[in-house]
Specification:
This is Acetohydroxy-acid reductoisomerase. Keywords: Amino-acid biosynthesis, Branched-chain amino acid biosynthesis, Oxidoreductase. The chain is an alpha/beta fold. It folds into two domains: 6-187, Rossmann fold (3-Layer(aba) Sandwich); 192-344, no CATH class. The protein has 15 helices and nine strands. The chain has helices at residues 29-41, 56-63, 72-78, 91-99, 115-118, 139-148, 166-176, 189-220, 225-234, 237-248, 259-271, 275-289, 293-301, 313-323, 326-344, and strands at 6-7, 22-25, 48-51, 67-69, 81-84, 108-111, 129-135, 154-161, 184-186. Strands 1-9-8-7-6-5-2-3-4 form a nine-stranded mixed sheet, with helices on both faces. The radius of gyration is 23 Å and the shape is globular. The N and C termini lie far apart (58 Å). The model has no long low-confidence stretch (mean pLDDT 96). The chain binds 1,4-dihydronicotinamide adenine dinucleotide. Residues 26-31, 52-53, 55, 57, 85-88, 90, 94, 112-113, 134-135, 138-139 line the site of 1,4-dihydronicotinamide adenine dinucleotide.
Length: 345
């Protein structure tokens, strides 16, 4: 059994942020939420700079009263702390070329995802601190839960302790954005990356496959597309099950289901031994994720993701899933039928 240390507000000293210049590189989902939280915690607006290219995000930051700097080199020169909050796939290009060369030798660099740190895609000086403060929430919830006065779940780690002061700084910054209110879990870039990519590349692909195959089997047995879509996800029953699992317990939530359902689910789960699945999962974790194979392959196609139409590999995957599977085709028909019906009523 392994249990992690959990840090609370009382472990963090906000005084460490006094007089520091804190730069937010990016004002999107996480950047907007974290910068506002930090300011509302009491960090002076003059200490905060939003470094952003000229776009709608920069306008949003200005409208919220933040000082916006479009020249990343200038922002880097004055930064004591920089939160890297632009999309993961553009971080190496933007940070390494425009930010890193001008950054102070003892700066604290904060990431919200372990990916680029674990795969060593960002250039840091050995004297700098590299810390991860990774909310387990979308940006809008990071903000709304802070405003409500409750916290949000978050991972915190020090992945390079260049100054020897990495942990106290990581905790002060976590507290500043509201992440130690309900407890920030000690983690690492490796752990965060492994779990994140595993969910994305092993867990959810299997769930998509299970739904796709179940749909086809039940359809072949005479079930209608309409009934299947509602039975399987459009009723929102699966969403309610996961919500109850989070609130009450992964297994305990089953007690809300009928006795027939409880018996079917629990006995059915024991009939599946999981041996092959475990082998498959281990393969994905070790031979695709942790060994850097996925990262290498993704880096090769990353620039193609900005393209329009079928040249963008993501668009092509969407097209195949939506147009070449029975589930995708059926859902499209059901949804257009529902839209037509609601339009005519
Ligand atoms: P986002 O997609 O909302 O980022 C938008 C920001 O990036 C804007 O400020 C935009 O101007 C800037 N940007 C985009 N492309 C750029 C480019 N080519 N050059 C310069 N600036 C560019 O990013 P998001 O979703 O907030 O993610 C930031 C980090 O937070 C990532 O590391 C992500 O993994 C992590 N994270 C995100 C969560 C979420 O709620 N989306 C949850 C937890 C962590």
């Amino acid at each position: 059994m392994t249990s992690a240390k959990i840090y609370y507000d009382s472990d963090a000293d906000l005084g460490l942020l006094m007089g520091k210049t804190i730069v937010f590189l990016g004002f999107g989902n996480q950047g907007a939420a974290q910068a506002q939280n930090l300011r509302d915690t009491g960090i002076h607006n003059e200490q905060i700079i939003v470094a952003n290219r000229t776009d709608a995000y920069a306008e949003d930051a200005k409208s919220k009263g933040f000082n916006v700097e479009h020249d990343f080199g200038k922002a880097a020169e004055v930064a004591d702390v920089v939160f890297i909050l632009i999309p993961d796939q553009v971080q190496p290009r933007v940070f390494n070329e425009q930010f890193a060369p001008k950054l102070k030798a003892n700066a604290t660099i904060v990431v919200a995802s372990g990916y680029n740190v674990f795969f060593k895609l960002l250039k840091f000086k050995p004297t700098q601190d590299v810390v991860m403060v990774a909310p387990r929430m979308i940006g809008s919830s990071v903000r709304s839960l802070y405003v409500k006065g409750t916290g949000f779940p978050c991972f915190v780690s020090v992945d390079q302790d260049g100054t020897g002061n990495g942990l106290p700084m990581a905790l002060a910054l976590s507290r500043g954005i509201g992440a130690t209110k309900t407890g920030a879990i000690a983690s690492s870039a490796r752990e965060e990356t492994a779990m994140d990519l595993f969910a994305e590349q092993a867990l959810w692909p299997n769930i998509i496959m299970i739904f796709r195959e179940a749909f086809s089997v039940l359809r072949e047995a005479g079930c209608s597309d309409e009934a299947l879509c509602y039975e399987m996800w459009m009723s929102k029953e699966p969403a309610e099950i996961f919500e109850a699992a989070a609130d009450e317990g992964f297994i305990t939530q089953l007690k809300h289901h009928s006795t027939v359902s409880q018996f079917g689910q629990l006995s059915g789960a024991f009939k599946l031994d999981g041996v092959e699945m475990r082998k498959h999962f281990k393969h994905i974790l070790h031979k695709q994720i942790l060994n850097g194979k996925f990262c290498e392959e993704f880096s090769k196609i990353e620039t193609e993701l900005d393209k329009e139409g079928p040249e963008n590999p993501l668009n092509e995957l969407y097209r195949r899933c939506e147009e070449e599977t029975e589930l995708g085709q059926a859902e499209k028909r059901v949804r257009s039928r529902l839209a037509a019906a609601s339009g005519s009523s």
